[in-house]
Amino acid sequence: MKQQALGFIGAGNMAASLISGLIADQYPANQIWVSDINEAALANLAERYGVHTTTRNAIVAEHAEILVLAVKPQILRAVVEELASTLQSRRPLVVSIAAGITSASIDRWADGHMPIVRCMPNTPAMVKTGATGLCANGCVSDAQRSQAEAILRAVGLTVWVDEESQLDAVTALSGSGPAYFFLMMEAMEDAGVALGLDRATARLLSQQTALGAGRIAIESEDPPAELRRRVTSPGGTTERAIATFEEGGLSPLVASAMEAAARRAAELSEQLGN
User: Which of 22, 65, 145, 189 has the greatest number of beta carbons closer than 10 A?
Assistant: First the structure.
């Protein structure tokens, strides 16, 4: 894969994170091409990583054997339709990280029969701890699946789903998920202040506790329910707090919130793809 020219249409935060991760994995900088209308962002990438940059999407498409679409969903159609003839002649693997746009829409705009992997990354990718769901269309080969996975694995873990509709669930869980944890941290911080801690102390304790719990969960083979049981002593403080969460309906509330997020993801896919 490292011998293939890799192009990025878009030089925003997610593209910059992927490029940073790939360079750290020894991907050759002279094999990476990036386009964007933001010349300052391009200059920053060129200076930091030594990649090729241009304000013309067509130049990137003309070089790329793997093309990463990293633009806002609202402009993706115009970008793809402009490049359709080049895509048809060169037949690159297309990797889309544009939220909400289906592979079928991208394929239609590109005039059909393109190998496309649609990805749903999340914002922790910017600190190399991302979680990305991927789904390939029927034109993607096994080798191309591996190539797409390697690109996203540079910024965290990757999982494949068999049906593209399952990416709505990925969006509801890991795509939107960081905000759920931030909300919990915010609530814990405010509660700590109400209990008498100064805000800086409450914030630091909530942040480090979230980090530690996540690290334990990642490194353990046991499910979260078992990990929770181990730190919940009978008659203790944690048991009292957990009982209060359960009485307030935390689990069904989380389920309802994620169902709402998944429905909205499906709605946006339909709106943006038309």
Answer: 22
Q: Give, to the nearest 10 degrees, the angle between helix 142-153 and helix 13-24.
A: 100
Report whether pLDDT(246) > 70. Answer: yes
User: What domains are there in the chain, each with its CATH number?
Assistant: 6-167 (3.40.50.720), 175-268 (1.10.3730.10)
Phi, psi for 70 (deg, rounded to 5): -130, 45
161: CB partners within 8 A, 6+ apart: 133, 134, 135, 167, 170
CB 187 within 8 A of CB 54: no
Beta strands in the chain (DSSP E): 6-9, 32-35, 52-54, 66-69, 93-96, 116-120, 130-136, 156-160
Residues 6+ apart with CB under 8 A from 132: 119, 120, 121, 122, 125, 152, 155, 156, 157, 158, 159, 174
Q: Hey, how many other C-beta atoms are within 10 angstroms of the C-beta on 26?
A: 8
Residues 233, 239, 244: CA angle, nearest 5 degrees: 175
